[in-house]
Design goal:
Elements: H1 2-23, H2 31-34, H3 44-57, H4 59-62, H5 86-89, H6 93-102, H7 116-126
Helix pairs in contact: 3-7, 6-7
This protein binds heme C.
Heme C binds next to helix 4, helix 5, helix 6 and helix 7.
Length: 133
């Protein structure tokens, strides 16, 4: 009985801690990245390169339409960000690029997995998830 209580209590603590860190832990992007411009226009060829990298590397967590509901998302402590929200739309390309390049916790760092150029294409592609006005 006591064991079970301790077990349940620790589950509760761990889950509230991870929720706390997600809400109260702003993701700080260094100035030099904030200022970076995307060298590629979001034209057809850029979007199609971005789409194929997204399908290989990102879809499993962020989901087919970017809502953070991919298959792997259920196994994580932190929910993959919903990429269709204002929150992403209001960030500069350089900020989004930095987050993909360097990662944080369960969001991997893609600097060794995807060429820098292609990360910019992925940035263009995930912008298409934002609903058009
Ligand atoms: C293993 C699951 C996983 C994979 C694979 C993954 N992500 Fe993430 N991603 C996350 C999680 C979890 C977060 C939230 C991290 C945090 O807030 O600490 C996140 C956050 C982000 C953010 C920040 C969103 C914001 O609102 O600031 C972006 C952008 C992003 N991911 C894009 C991508 C892209 C592009 C790929 C593929 C190249 C990718 N992710 C692959 C789990 C994943």
């Amino acid at each position: 009985m006591i064991r079970k209580t301790i077990f349940l209590l620790s589950i509760f603590l761990i889950s509230s801690l991870s929720m706390y860190s997600q809400v109260n832990n702003p993701w700080v992007v260094p100035d030099e990245y904030q200022k970076m411009e995307n060298p590629f226009e979001a034209d057809k060829s850029s979007l199609s390169i971005g789409e194929s990298f997204y399908a290989t590397h990102c879809k499993t967590c962020h989901g087919e339409t970017g809502m953070g509901d991919g298959l792997t998302s259920k196994t994580l402590d932190v929910n993959p960000s919903d990429l269709t929200l204002d929150d992403l739309d209001t960030q500069k390309d350089g900020e989004v690029y930095y987050k993909i390049l360097i990662g944080r916790d369960e969001m991997h760092a893609y600097e060794r997995l995807i060429d820098e150029e292609d990360i910019w294409h992925v940035v263009n592609y995930i912008r298409t998830f934002y609903p058009e006005e």
